């Protein structure tokens, strides 16, 4: 499903697309290279570490888009919309979605002005179903990721400082990162 996020990155006209993956995932490495992506082979122990690996060699003011390869979401121009939310007051702009399984994700709280006020990482009792599934940021705005296992913890700290925008993409987010999640997604898509 990496093609899904790659397509959305291309719509945003990225100068370079980077894919961080483990060296033992030869099928992913070869597929990403055939798709024109720069492959960064690493063994990050967490999602935050994977995002940090993708920042290698970038200036702090470089604009970075990030997405999860095992996800399905609309719209195709979602990254374009998220990019538009970055400004001098915003370190990170998160693409927000609805999900039927918020406990598997980072649940986002929004203020009346659309700014993200909090990010709860995989809460046992979610207070809503609005989650982040992709985003845009300055590389410098992501520098603090190295201090966290989950990116949502870094986003929460930035949100409390008023530095995170939320872009509600008015769509569902489908995580297909596990076999059980893939089976649920297939069943859900078949019902549509």
Roughly how much helix do the residues carry, as a percent range? 25-40%
Secondary-structure-based class equals: alpha/beta
Beta-strand content bin:
25-35%
> How many DSSP E strands?
9
Shape: globular
Low-confidence parts: none
Radius of gyration: 16 Å
Count of helical stretches? 6
The main pleated sheet reads as: 5 strands, mixed
Measure the end-to-end span: 19 Å
Mean pLDDT: 91
Q: List the secondary-structure elements in sequence, H or E.
A: HEHEHEEHEEEEHEH
Structure description:
The protein is α/β, with parallel strands linked by helices and 192 residues long. The chain contains six helices and nine strands. A hairpin with a 5-residue loop joins β6 (106-110) and β7. The longest helix has 13 residues, at 179-191. The chain is globular, with a radius of gyration of 16 Å. It starts with a helix and ends with a helix.
């Amino acid at each position: 499903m990496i093609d899904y996020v790659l397509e959305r990155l291309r719509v945003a006209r990225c100068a370079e697309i980077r894919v961080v993956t483990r060296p033992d995932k030869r099928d992913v490495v070869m597929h990403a290279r055939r798709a024109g992506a720069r492959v960064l082979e690493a063994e990050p122990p967490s999602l935050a570490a994977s995002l940090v690996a993708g920042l290698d060699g970038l200036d702090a003011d470089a604009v970075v888009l990030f997405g999860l390869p095992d996800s399905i979401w609309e719209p195709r121009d979602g990254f374009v919309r998220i990019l538009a939310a970055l400004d001098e007051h915003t370190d990170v702009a998160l693409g927000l979605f609805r999900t039927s399984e918020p406990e598997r994700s980072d649940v986002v709280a929004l203020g009346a002005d659309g700014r993200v006020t909090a990010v709860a990482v995989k809460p046992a009792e979610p207070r809503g179903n609005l989650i982040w599934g992709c985003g845009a940021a300055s590389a410098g705005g992501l520098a603090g990721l190295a201090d966290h296992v989950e990116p949502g913890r870094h986003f929460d700290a930035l949100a409390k400082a008023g530095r995170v925008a939320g872009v509600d993409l008015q769509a569902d987010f489908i995580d297909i990162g596990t076999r059980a999640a893939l089976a649920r997604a297939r069943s859900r898509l078949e019902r549509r």
